[in-house]
Amino acid sequence: MRLHELRPAKGAKKARKRKGRGISAGQGKTAGRGTKGQNARSGGGKGPYFEGGQLPLVRRLPYKRGFINRWKVYYRSVNISRLAIFPEGSEVDPVAMAEAGLIKKASLPVAILGDGELDRALTVKAHRFSASARTKINAAGGTVEELPWDVQRTRRGG
User: Fold this and answer.
1) Residue 53 needs a FRET pair 20 to 30 A away by CA distance; which of 65, 77, 154, 156 works?
2) pLDDT in tens, the chain (158 residues)
3) Considering the domain boundaries, does residue 121 fall inside one?
4) Alpha carbon distance 78, 113 (integer Å)
5) Containing domain of residue 93, as a range?
6) Is residue 70 situated within a structural domain?
7) Is the dihedral of CA 90, 96, 99, 103 positive or negative?
8) What is the spatial distance between Cα 110 and Cα 128, in angstroms, rounded to a whole number?
9) How far apart, in whole angstroms, are the C-alpha atoms of residue 141 and residue 19?
10) What angle do CA 114, 119, 123 make, to 5 degrees?
11) Interatomic CA distance for residues 117 and 111, integer angstroms
């Protein structure tokens, strides 16, 4: 076998249809477009948006505004009034809050908010504290400890 003897396999190469080149070619006259009408014309036919005059699907769906910030960190918030379930002097961290049912997952960042009152001294560990929560915990004789958080793990939905 020589280089000049190489050929593609039988049926591997197929000639394209040369439409509109006379009736003997089999695709002459109307060139497979049928007779008359919008789709028979050059540039004819409707776009994918058109639905025969019916209100298109994309217009029937509710309009979405704005965007979702991919970098926003969604905190799980817990008010200090809900920390009253812990005994005096205990250490309250995200793991303890998850076990008590205050939050669903201990792996997500937690923010402590200042709604309500706290009547016992607790060591509260969380990723963020509001100013009022911080003062109320300190006023009750407790301590506030801010935990570091990993941005990569704590994005939307976590």
Assistant:
1) 65
2) 899 999 999 999 999 999 999 988 888 999 989 899 998 998 888 888 999 999 999 888 888 888 888 888 889 999 999 999 999 999 999 999 999 999 999 988 999 999 999 999 999 999 999 999 999 999 999 999 999 987 655 555 54
3) yes
4) 6
5) 76-146
6) no
7) positive
8) 6
9) 89
10) 70
11) 16
CATH number at residue 109: 3.100.10.10
The DSSP-derived string for 16-46 is PP-TTS-GGGSS-TTTTS-SSSGGGSTT-S-
Total domains in the chain come to 1
Which amino acid, one-letter code, is at 60? Answer: R
Q: Which residues contact 29 (CB under 8 A, 6 or more apart)?
A: 20, 23
User: What is the separation, in whole angstroms, between the first and last Cα of the chain?
Assistant: 63
Q: Kindly state whether residue 4 falls inside one of the protein's structural domains.
A: no
Q: Is the whole-model pTM more than 0.85?
A: no
Tokens of 107: 């792996």
Written as one letter, the residue type at 65 is R
Q: Which two tokens stand for residue 65?
A: 């505004």
